[in-house]
Every structure is written in C-alpha cells, then in structure tokens.
Amino acid sequence: MDPNDIKQNAGMEALLTCFRRRSHVLFFRIKDLDGIVPKLKPTLSLSSQATLNALRNRLSEYRLLSDLVARKIVVYIENEIRFGVQRIGNDWHIPLNFFADNSIIETAVIGENPSDVMLLLKFAECYIEREKIHGFFPNARAICGGGSVIAASLSSYLRTESSPCLSVTDSDKLHPKFKQSIVTKRCIEIVNKAANKVAEHISLEEREIENLIPHDLIKRIENANVFINQINSIVVEDPGHWKYIDLKQGLALDWVARQDSETKKYWKKAEAELNRRKKGCCLCKNGEAKEKLCECTKILGMGDNVLANAIDILSNNPLKLNLKLMQTDLRWEKIAKAIFDFTIAPKGEKVR
Ligand SMILES: [Zn+2]
238: CA distance to ligand 1 center in Å? Predict the structure, then answer.
C-alpha cells in the first residue's frame, strides 16, 4: 500500500466511512492492520484513524464473526489502475481503487413487496440470535418491485447503484416439478449479466414467501389452527406440501379440477379427501350436485394478512421466543444466512 497514492487513500477513507456509518462490517487481517495500515494512517482523517484503532481493539470479536460470514468482498491493493469486480466462489474481489470512485452504502434487498423484505430481515435477526452474535444487526434498504416489476427494479438498481444487492423471488410453484417463473429467470439473467456489481439473486423453492414461515409461528396467528388441522388431515404423509399450499386462499376441489395433469397428480390426495367429504355431504346431495359446491369441498385459507400477522408476531415477541417458534422447521435458514451475509452491520454506539 502506498501512502502517497491518492486513490488508495480515498478508497481506504471510503471503506472506513462505510463502517463508521454502520453500512457494512470491515474485517482486517492482523498482519495488514499491524503492517501496512500504520504507514497509511498519517494521511487518513482523524475519524478514520480512530476507526482503525477501534477495529484493532475488537479484532478477536471480528474474527469470530468473519468465520460466519460466507459471502464477502475481498479488497486487494493494486498499483496499476484496475476497476474490475470479480466473483470468485462466494467472494467478490475488488481493488481498493474502486471504492474511491464508487460510493457504497447499505445493501439493497430487492423483493416483491415491503412485507416480503421485512420478513426476510426478521429471519436474519433470528439467525443472528441463533448464532449468538451480539452488537450486529441486518442493515438493509428495502427496494420493492411488486410481482413482475421486480426484474425491472433490479435492472434499474444495477444500472444506477454500486452498493451490494440481493434480490429474492418466490417460485409461484404449485408442486416441486412446476416450471420456473419468467420473473425468476429474468432476475437470474440480469444478475449474471451485470458487470462490476456485487449482486446475487436467490429464488425460493416456496410458492410464496409465506410458505417459509414455520408451523409453530403460523399457529400463533388468530384462527390459523382450523386451517392447519384441515391441511394436515389431507397432506400429513407429505410435509413437503407446506411449500406449495396457498396459505391465503386455501385449497378447493374445483381449483384442483382446473389444473394441468402434473398439478392434479401432486394434489390427488387432497382431491380424493375433498371428494370423500362431498360424497358424505347432504347439502351437495351426497356428491351428486352439479351446481356450485358448498364449504365441504374447500379448505378455507387464512386470508391476505398471513404475512402481516406473522411479521407482527415476530416484531412484538422477544427474539428468544421467536427463535423457539422458528426452530421446529429450519427451511428459512438458508435465505436468512444469505441476508445475513449481505446485510450484517455493526450496531455501534448510541449517538448522544
Ligand atoms: Zn357439501
């Protein structure tokens, strides 16, 4: 590192500012902190010098955290001017000079709507609690696309911003073999084509983000038990159905009848059970009625507020209780880990 190199100085200054503003965590190797950085110190601002000292004092704490963060930006020093961002495995390798010319703020988490992003950040909080990490939190900007507009939002973000970004789509799948959605395909293409960006797209296997919420948490939502008991009576042999069930609308015999053969095959046990109920129902004239079918052929969903209710519960409960509710079904953990990697930031001291 060259203390007389203006770009390197500006890059280091920018990185330390980013940490100080609690946008991202910085990890240093001890040999860099003790070797190269002191040479640079006199040319840095006083606040950046203080930040370096603070980092030096908390080195062991940061080393533990560093082992948990799977996706990182690795900053390297180049004397020649290079600007390229390279993805190598889980990491992005970026020359220090890059930070002199590109302003980096908090990660953007791009989702279909604000509630989706909020739930993802709640998952990350649970992950942080589970790993017993203190003094850090998932710091992110929520950018929302609204269904199919998410690809356009992602594209526009990558065109105009340099800060890291993680976009997430649900699958809209009605069963495991259902085709990938066009929106997801488009988002993956956009991220793959984006040059010089720290970006990733994650496509959930679940039909909607609500399907990631564990049973034990859903059960806390008012009136959820009726739905859960009914669904369980139909799909108890395959808990995988929980990924594809429509939590809001529920499941109806005439819905199954309208689907393609693969979808019908997947929901055939539910179809058989609903047909059995219809045959035993006198309102449906023991199954012979052709007109609009009655409640016996439906499992009523929980309505449109499932996600909002789940977020309310997670926001009002202590983290420890949330984690207890979340522990029974860990499908959320993979996406929580990705959000954690992208958004982990120091809480910092309270401003007085
Ligand atoms: Zn009936």
Answer: 26
Distance 85 CA to ligand 1 centre (A): 62
Tens digits of residue pLDDT in 7-47: 889 999 999 999 999 999 999 988 888 887 778 778 899 99
Distance in Å, CA 10 to ligand 1 centroid:
72
Spatial distance between the Cα atoms of 167 and 194, rounded to a whole number of angstroms: 13
For residue 319, give the nearest of 116, 122, 69, 118 by alpha carbon. 122
With a CB cutoff of 8 Å and minimum separation 6, the contacts of 67 are none
Q: How far does residue 211's CA lie from ligand 1's centre (Å)?
A: 28
Domain with residues 107-212+320-346, CATH architecture: 3-Layer(aba) Sandwich (3.40)
Task: Please give the model's pTM, rounded to 2 decimal places.
Answer: 0.92
| Spacing, Cα 237 to ligand 1 middle (Å) | 25
CA of 252 to the centre of ligand 1 (A): 12
Distance (angstroms) between ligand 1 centre and the Cα of 12 equals 70
| 14 Cα: distance to centroid of ligand 1 (angstroms) | 67
Domain ranges of the chain: 6-101, 107-212+320-346, 215-300
pLDDT in tens, 300-348: 899 999 999 999 999 999 999 999 999 989 999 999 999 999 999 999 7
Quote the ligand 1 centre to 79 CA distance (angstroms). 77
264 alpha carbon – ligand 1 mean position (Å):
21
